[in-house]
Amino acid sequence: MTMTEQDLRDIAIVGIGKIARDQHIPAIADGGAFRLAATVSRSGGIAGTENFTTIEALLEARPEIGAVSLCMPPQVRYEAAAAALRAGRHVMLEKPPGATVAEVRALAELARAQGVSLFATWHSRHAAGVAPARAWLAGRSLRKVTIDWQEDVREWHPGQGWIWEPGGLGVFDPGINALSILTAILPVPVHLARAELAFPSNRDTPIAATLTFAAPGGVPVEAVFDWRQQGAPTWDIRVETEDGTLALSEGGGKLAIDGAPQPLDHPGEYPSLYAHFAGLLARNASDVDDTPLVHVADAFLLGRRIAVEPFED
Ligand code: NAP
């Protein structure tokens, strides 16, 4: 169905940083279900769009904007989300949905009480290969699962001080993307059994982590997250089953079965996210799955900590 200008819903983006500029603004502009009606930005927003410096000012001044998309760091997301929900607005959260599991659950409850939609996004779940991977794995018996998620933090998170502060998740900021895929595609649940987290001696969040999950039948499920990789990133998940091996690469964007690349047709992660949000609004529904954040919280609870050399940006 083609949307006319009148059908578009007004939405505001809060926090105009890397992901807002790289993905959210282009996805909204690309003619989905929304029109960018305003921004909230402490640093000025984007040319040609009305900007507010606080979300409270936006909520007060523009009551016709029914939805907000929050793209700031997780440590400051709860207050903004709660303010928007209390003001009767639908809310879309960048990943991770919050700095704690409990605050995400509180937001889900607030959205329910307010009768508005809350969408805790996991953009990697909308990568082209993820839905076909889930479909292929359904009903198959697992033998072994390995996740290899390594990138250069200086390239992918330049100057992002918040990511090294408590609540910033460190290497789990990208690693949680892998966990969001894992928990979407596996036909069985897993839980963390062991972890080792490497903290630079001058930082509050880890630069690397290894995770071992317990799965039914003792199937080995292992993950390596590392921010010290130079050059091209590795964002791979490999699932060996009794009758074949599935490989997701490029963050879920490519899928191969027994080495054979699978044809994929997909609109892109962020257009797909906004289409899903539009569907939630149409159905007056929410979508809040905190499972990937629970696994990260468990890693901080259970993980053995080792100190590694200081990290300087
Ligand atoms: P970023 O470049 O640091 O941008 C975050 C923006 O949030 C800032 O530019 C700032 O915008 C606003 N902000 C509000 N309060 C802030 C505070 N206390 N400290 C710092 N910034 C504050 O970060 P990002 O990469 O866009 O990441 C934002 C969220 O998107 C994170 O949860 C991240 O996990 C997620 N994400 C990032 C990527 C990626 O590739 N970078 C990919 C997917 C998801 P104003 O100046 O406009 O206020």
Structure, described:
The chain has 313 residues and is of the alpha/beta class. The chain has 2 domains: 5-120, Rossmann fold, CATH 3.40.50.720; 125-263 and 296-308, Dihydrodipicolinate Reductase, domain 2. 31% of the residues lie in helices and 27% in strands. It has 9 helices and 15 strands. Helix 7 (172-185) packs across helix 9 (291-302). The longest helix has 15 residues, at 269-283. The chain is globular, with a radius of gyration of 20 Å. The model has no long low-confidence stretch (mean pLDDT 96). Bound molecules: NADP nicotinamide-adenine-dinucleotide phosphate (NAP). NADP nicotinamide-adenine-dinucleotide phosphate (NAP) binds next to helix 1. NADP nicotinamide-adenine-dinucleotide phosphate is lined by residues 15-20, 41-43, 71-74, 76, 94-95, 123, 160, 162, 173.
Assembly status: single chain
Q: What characterizes the major β-sheet?
A: 9 strands, mixed
**What separation lies between the terminal Cα atoms?**
47 Å
| SSE run | EHEEHEHEHEHEHHEEEEEEEHHE
In the CATH scheme, the class of the largest domain would be: Alpha Beta
Mean pLDDT: 96
CATH fold-level topology of the largest domain: Dihydrodipicolinate Reductase, domain 2
Quickly count the domains.
2
Radius of gyration, whole Å: 20 Å
Weakly predicted, low-confidence segments: none
Give the structural class: alpha/beta
The CATH architecture designation of the largest domain is 2-Layer Sandwich
CATH H-level name of the largest domain... which superfamily? Dihydrodipicolinate Reductase, domain 2
